[in-house]
Amino acid sequence: MTNLTPNAGPHDAAFDAPHVCAGCDNAEAAAHAAGAGSGPGKPTVNRWEPTSHHSSRNGQDIDHIVVHYTTSRNIEGTISHFKHGSPQTSAHYLIGRDGALVQMVGDGERAWHAGNALMNARSIGIEHVAAVGDRIAEQQARTSAALIGWLMREYEIPKSQVIPHICVPRNTDCCGDLFAGFGGGVKAGAEAQRKALHAWMSSMGL
Known about the structure:
Layout: H1 27-34, E1 47-48, E2 54-56, E3 64-71, H2 75-84, E4 93-95, E5 101-103, E6 109-111, H3 117-122, E7 123-131, H4 138-155, E8 162-164, H5 190-203
């Protein structure tokens, strides 16, 4: 779940590690221009729903992926909130239960999803449409794995830097029960949620 204080929160030393990828002001354009990565291309974006809820990365490299869930199965409500809601929040990508991929913020811009300004600047935020208690759906999982795999290749992001929102850290149990079948869940702590996400990634060939 995207935190409702998008750029609030103290500077956290856990995210001061050296950058993994060499970037520029527009990391997305730079990666495409350089022909970064190998393997399957970017999954098809089924809908582009641009929001004004974003800002500049100020030259920060993209070196993390943050995984969220929406707490609601209403994809249209989430899209509307990311466009018009208050306080202003957003994510780069939104994945429906049916596997539909919606993009709302370009990779080269900072989406307001992590509740931490530094992490917002250096990460891609992916929301999964799911109610409280829902596990990741089969078609949703396929799209998510394809997107995460492409982002990892495109921006040279190691698996260790693909994290659930709870690891930012914030006062959140996100990404909920998406990966409860792999040892995660709302009652699990940050490390258990991280291990569950990575176990799911392994099961998807990532």
